[in-house]
């Protein structure tokens, strides 16, 4: 039981370290997969604040077309804010917006964002002229709408929901919006036609060049009043810092591993005391001090190694359960496995040195007499 508990201490320490590294790596892998799918070549131009007034400026109506003519730009999607509430029905107070924004959009927004429809269809040249609306997945949840065909109340009339979007990590503002056609917004709701966000996709090798030109192209008169952002930077930063909090847990795992090493050392010291007769007998039969030291260091390594293998298995299983629950890829870095197992062997060696030296120093005569 003493040997089992000592090995268990090692196993818990290694399992904690493997699980922490594995969970962090799995989360990073998920983010990187999203980045690969969504791309890092999208920029967003939005109105900034006036240099002297401090008030929000407007983008020219011609800005999307001008940006599309920049060399390297492949697609442009446009949205414009419409100051109307989106409600489930006319019986709900207008102030109860649920945080849902209403945006006018142009047909090419879906392709530019590389978004997918959860169900229903996207706006097109026909539906974009009539009271039709596409909901982001968050806005659909808040409105209690699960499928196309239902209606929402906007600007004094009902709009038919023709589709619901899947999550869009690069454009969370779209997830919380209701989207209507540009023509319908102008004709039915008095939309002024000024874009409030212009999304553009460019060639991967032209992103920096396009970014340098967007502001002065979108608003040649006041380019400083145009804000240009890279939405993929947030995901990249999140992926880079995913393991920051894990450092603390990794340290706790290291402490548990050291405690396990102390347990191994204690077990080996007690083993030396209990096996003095065996040690004396071996020495009297010709075993050298070096052979005695090797024997006890080897036993310590075996004890730590078995605990390490058990810990690696437990950590891998814990990571697998977490990954499956969160629909993440299962990733356990090889360096974590080899490093963790190497740490157990190092701790086993250090923990066994003192008991081994102590066993080798026992006098054969005194050891046999004590027995």
Question: How is this structure best described in words?
Answer:
- By secondary structure, this protein is of the alpha+beta class.
- The protein is 53% helix and 16% strand.
- It has 13 helices and eleven strands.
- Strands 1, 2, 3, 4, 5, 6, 7, 8, 9, 10 and 11 form an eleven-stranded mixed β-sheet that branches.
- β7 and β8 form a beta hairpin.
- α1 packs antiparallel against α9, α1 packs across α11 and α9 packs parallel to α12.
- The chain is elongated, with a radius of gyration of 33 Å.
- It starts with a helix and ends with a helix.
- The mean pLDDT is 83.
Approximately how much beta-strand content do the residues carry?
15-25%
Low-confidence stretches: none
Terminal residue distance: 24 Å
Give the count of helical stretches.
Answer: 13
Rg, rounded, reads: 33 Å
Largest β-sheet summary: 11 strands, mixed
Helicity range of the residues? 40-55%
Tally of DSSP β-strands: 11
Shape: elongated
Provide the structure class. alpha+beta
What string, H for helix and E for strand, traces the elements in order?
Answer: HEHEEEHEEHEEHEHEHEHHHHHH
* Average pLDDT over all residues: 83
